Each structure stands twice: as C-alpha cells, then as structure tokens.
User: Fold this.
Amino acid sequence: MPAAESKTGQPSVSRNRLVLPVYTAAIFVSALLLFSVQPLFTKMVLPRLGGSPAVWSVAMVFFQSLLLMGYVYAHLLMRINNRLIPILVHVAVLVLAFATLPLAIAVRWGEPPTSGYAIWLLGLFVASIGLPFFALAANNPLLQAWFVRTGHPDGTDPYFLYASSNIGSFLALLSYPFVFEPIFTLRMQNLLWTGGYGLLIALIAACGLLLWRSPALVPDRVVAESEVPPPSLATRARWVFLAAVPSGLLIAVTAHISTDVAAAPLLWVLPLSLYLLTWVLVFQTRPLLPHKWMLRAQPVAIAGVIVLLAVGGEQNLLLTLGGHQLGFFVIAMACHGELARTRPPARYLTGFYVALSFGGMVGGLFAGLIAPNVFSWIAEYPVLIVLAALCRPIGNERWPGLSRWLWPLAVAIALLLIVPSQMRGEMFEWFEAHRVYLAGGVAVLGMLLALVFDTARLKLAAIAALALVLVRVYPADDGRVDTVRSFFGVHKIVTTPGGRYHVLMHGTTIHGAQKFLNVDGTPVAGRPEPISYYHKDGGIGQAITAVRERKGAPLRVAAIGVGSGTLACSAAPGEAWKFFEIDQTMVDTARDSRYFTYVQNCQPDFRPVIGDARLTFAREADGLYDLIIVDAYSSDAIPIHLATQEAMKIYKDKLAPQGVVLMHVSNRHLELASVVVGIADANGMKSWVYDEDSGRDDDYIFATNVVVSARADADVGKLAASDKWEATDAKADQRVWTDDYCNVLGAVYRRLRDGE
Assistant:
C-alpha cells in the first residue's frame, strides 16, 4: 500500500530525504557501468580483430544504437499508467541481463571475415553484450521519469540528474585506462563489473519501491504540464540534428587527431571525456559556462579548427592536438546548450531523450560507418564542422542592409580563390604556397562577420564551407598525395617533389618508402634496395643476415605485416617467405606498381594470408620457420594481442630448431622493448635488444628499435657477440603482458621517463 501523504499531496519529509540520494546513486552507478563496459569489452574483442582504432568507432555506433533502443523502451514503458508494471518489467529485464554475466564473447561466433569487419563486429557486440547494455541504456530516462512521479520537490526539473549521469560516465572513462587497466586483470575487471551490475539492480529496486510507496495523488505541477502542448515535429527534428552533429564530430575529431596528427595510445579518451563534460555542464542548474558565451565562442572555434586543418598536424604537436579538442569542446557546448535551452517540461522527458539518442546514433552512423566507406580521407570532419554552423539558433542580423551583400561577396571570393586551383603556372604555385593564409583568412572573415553582424547561420556555414574547400584544393603536403582508406585506417602514399621517393604514411608515421630516382634524376635500375626501417645496416637487416649466416642455407621466413612490401626484397634467392596481413588495402597498395615495386620485382608470386595474424598464423605447422618477423609495431597504435605471453608461445611453437623471433618495436609513444623481453622470458627464451640512436632521415633511412628472441645464444649467430645488440633480462618489477593483462599507460610512462 502507498504510504500516507501530507496534506499538500507530497510524500512525507522523511521519505523525500531518501528519494534524491537513492535515485542519484542509481543513476551514477548505471553511468559508471555504461561507460566502463565499452573499453572493457572492446579489449576482450581486440584479439579477434587486430588493434585497429576503428574498433572503437564501431563500438561507439553499437553503443549509440543500443542507447536509442533503451530510450525508446523507457519511453514506451512510461506510457503505462499503472506505476507498478514498469517497475516489475524493468527489474525483470535487469535480472535476466544479469543472468548472462559475466561478459563473454558469444560462443561459436566465428572468426572475422576478410571483409565487412564493421558489420561482423556490430553483430558480435549485439550477440555478446546486447541485453546487459540495453537494460543499462534505459536507466537514465526511466529513473528520471520515476523521480518526477515520486512527487519530490526537485521533480519540476529533473534534468540535473542527467548531469549526475554524465559525471559517472566521465569518471568511468578516465578511471579505466588510469586505474583499472594497469591494476586489474581482464578477468578481475569483468568480475568487478558484474558485481557492480548486481549492486545496480538493488539500487533500482529501491528506486522502484520508493516510487510505488509515493502518493498516488498527481501533484499540481504535473496537471499544469499536461496543459502544455507536446513538442512539434520541427522541434523534435532540431533536437535530433543538435545531438547528431556533436556525436558525429566526436568520432570524426578522434579519427582526425589519431590519423592525421598523432596516433597516440589512449588518445580516444580525451575527446570522449570532453563530450561527456559538455553534457555535465549544460544541464547544471546554474551552468558554469553560460550558453550565450558558448554561442559567441562557436564561430571562433570553427575558424580555429579550419586554420588548424590548413596548417596540418606536424607543427607544434601539443598545440595542434589541444586546438582541435578545444574547438570540439566549444562546438559541442553550443550544440548541447541549445538542447538544454529548448528541453521540454518533465512530462515529455522520455520523448526528449529518444530524440537525443536518435541524433547520437545518426551522427555515429555517419562518422563511424558511412564515411569510412564513402570517403578516402577524413572528409566527415570538415563536413560536420560546416553543419555545426547550422546548429546556431535563429536570430535577427544586425544591419541587414549591409549583411545582404554577403552572398555576392562569398561568390566573388570563391571564384577568385578556387578557380586558380584548376590552372598551372606561377599563379597556381603562389596560391598553393599561401594556402594557410587563404583558408585562414576566409575562416577569420566568417568569424568576424558572425560576431559583428550576428550573421545568419546559413551564411556562416557557407563561408566555413568555402574555407574548407580551399584547404582541400590546395594540398599541404609536398609533392603528390594519394590516399587509401579501409576499416583499419587512412594511409597516404606521398610522392616527394621531383618523384625521387614514394612514401607510405599513416598520419605522421612512415610505414615504408622506396627510392625511384637517383640524385641526378635517372631512374633506379635493378632490384629495389630496402630502405626506411629495413635497410641492410639497421636492426632488421642485421638480424636477417645473422640468421641466414648461422643457418648457411636458404631460410623459411614468416613476416607479419606487409606495409609497402619492402621486406619482399630482403629475401635471398631460394628462400621461402610467407606474409600475413590483416588489411587487404595494404596488400593492394604494395602490389600497385604506381606506388611501390618491391613485390613486383622481388616476389611476383606474392600471396599473403589475409586475416588477423594471431588467428591465421596459429594455424601454421609447428617447427616450420627459421625466422618470424613481427612488424606490427612501427605504427603508433599497436595491436596489443600480438605482444602477449600467449602470442609469443604461438611464435615459439612455429619456430624450427634454432629459430628466431624478430619483433620491430619502433614507436614514438610506447616503450615496447621491455614488453617483448618479458613475454619471451615467460616462454623460456632469451632476448637481445637493438636500439639505434639515429638515422639518416634525409635519405629515408631510419633508426630502428628491434628485439630478437631465441632459445639459445647460438641461435642468433653473430648478434650474441655484437656490441650493438644488448642481451637483456626481463625486469622483475614489470608485470608480463598477457591476454588477460596489459599496461599501455606504463609503456607511455617509460617512453616519457626515458626522454626518447
């Protein structure tokens, strides 16, 4: 029976004191679980699909889609007039979801396909954690709607609970890489998460009990709200648009800074943290950053992002990273602030959240699934920057007599600056050389017009689009640039001025290069010479030579990673080299003689095994290879599952007697040599580290960091006695990486500590 109520139709004071803390705790714990499950389960999936940062984007699409389903479920549930039925139904769904825990990859889901990774991954997420996440997704709007019906005095505007939810999400996001991952194994993380889910069920049951025992009398304010007409279709559509733009920008800006600026580990945490922080700030009772300030700052942020895109990512890395994320924060604050400003009365709360989640899903689908299959570069970023200008509210322009001339001015500027891009000669070279000033000048002009004239949003969007077109038609890179894009990222093939070198790049990281012309301009004749990290005097070249001399006969070699195909020309006549590669576009690029000719000249029958090497290589016969080269670590975003104790056991099993494992661990952000030494020692193998101090960068010959591991000193031949190769023992105080544990943050810290 509902408890007695006061004469005012409100619950007793003692019960009111319980409602707010219990509901706040339930929403907070739900948010913690919601945003900790993403990195937790993504980490569980990575051994099945490589270390691609795109896994994160697909995970975001999955979570946003399930969030929408959860919000729709909450909306429908709250349309039931009987207050007991929604409580019983939702608690039952939570208990059913709890029965599927702890988290695990769906049984017999199968190996990833050679194409269509994103769809396969979405299916895997749905089959594995769909029900627990769906139940979590419904909690925020559902609990807020319950809170309103308890008759609590703060129920007039329950949106402050949304800020509490996002604080929980924010803490979960930051605590995972900095606390849980370095301290706990994957299994322990899973058990802790399962325990948290059980606690949440108890809290939500308590929330339901408080709702059921609250007075059945409808408060006067609810009666007043019932007289307010429901939001129009146009209003709901605008909510969707305002939610979609920052959601898409979250994925787009992450892809940009991790592809074209620096593919540093944990970089995805920063934009997502800022995204959640904006939700916390805009739904505060008294916002720390007033919405009108953010609307004033938004044109400045758009102009700043355009200037950064014009400049590129290599000049002052920290400033560039910070600038993109600051711009994203201001734009998201303006969009989310508009949502907070136009939020409906509590009566229409669940419908409002459905619109928000639908917009988030639309933005995520565009940036996470559609754009990678439509564009060969990160085109979604500038597209969404233009759309962000349309998120501004409608206002009256100042001095309309002057502002009406803006359209003719924009057309004239476009003709003046874009037409020369289709021409050749000194004029074109001048425009290309001054691209930063051209694009930046147009962007700043748009910002000033927006601030001075309060320019209409369509005009601001047009000026931003013009500036971004200039960024694209006048390239920043020296020489010609072609791009290829796949699920595993965007790669650039840069032809240097004069055509001397072709260089394969991922962001600012070089993955391989080939020399096509000599200094005098004559074509390079004969068999291509391996350069970049693979030159004969570097760590990789020395190790190959040493194993070949030790055996005194042709080698059988397995190479994980294709890149530009350089290693194909490291093979000697009569040797059998087999390549393993997860990304078909890399194989196509290496085979394309327009870009590189290593494969064409040195291994014309090149037939690599496509798929994740952890899975495909495990199927090779034991005791087969004299040398295994793991070349998956020259990038800045690494496939961790190829550097674990279990992975090294697979490599060891495939080695012939006296065989050697060579791992290329050059990396700007992570210290990985000690990781490899540790996993080798755990398998009873000795290791030698080659850490070159410098290289001749002007000749595309780079310093390398290489680790070779073998069963005995004699297996590595002359390397064991070389003063350039240091016999290295595992560090007793450094935990061995396994499939159940890794510490990326520790690898980052060691790199920073060593000052390299």
